[in-house]
What does this fold into?
Amino acid sequence: NAGVTQTPKFQVLKTGQSMTLQCAQDMNHEYMSWYRQDPGMGLRLIHYSVGAGITDQGEVPNGYNVSRSTTEDFPLRLLSAAPSQTSVYFCASSYQVTTNEKLFFGSGTQLSVL
Amino acid sequence: TQLLEQSPQFLSIQEGENLTVYCNSSSVFSSLQWYRQEPGEGPVLLVTVVTGGEVKKLKRLTFQFGDARKDSSLHITAAQPGDTGLYLCAGGGADSWGKLQFGAGTQVVVTP
It folds into this structure.
């Protein structure tokens, strides 16, 4: 059972480039989310989804787009990368939407924008 | 806005010592979770507490949820090098459906 799989593990972009961070889960979880982790800031929620076709903004959504066409996949798109988006990105999923439900995290994508 | 404040930010202790990590907020949470994160990996859930005053034990780790559900603590007894990691608390509110708030974390280093 793979759990939550994120690709790539590392990525370097130039300012203005676009890219998609991939996230897939094989646990049939309803809820999926994207967080970014910066030193001293903890994990901050970017976007989340409560099911296929349904997405909503989190705390820091600007500069990022998401879509959820299937239960399994929840890609995060950076349309025009900026140095401020240098961070470690985590995808997470859970069986239900309630906030006391266990979150399963991927192993992260370390992104550097030059 | 950081709703959950963790203290201390960094803790370095010797094997066998005890330690306590705190998670405080001015907001009431319907539940609070503790995660541990190791370098290069995502956080892994340790425990969820949902009732004010609740105490949960996980081997040498003791978790407490404040009576008012605004704060929590994690106590480790006789720490071991395997306890080294970043400890994160995360709170969920009744009006924050789907939006779990994380603290900045406490980095714990246990040396042999």
User: Anything to note?
Assistant: Chain B touches chain A through 31 residues (CB under 8 Å).
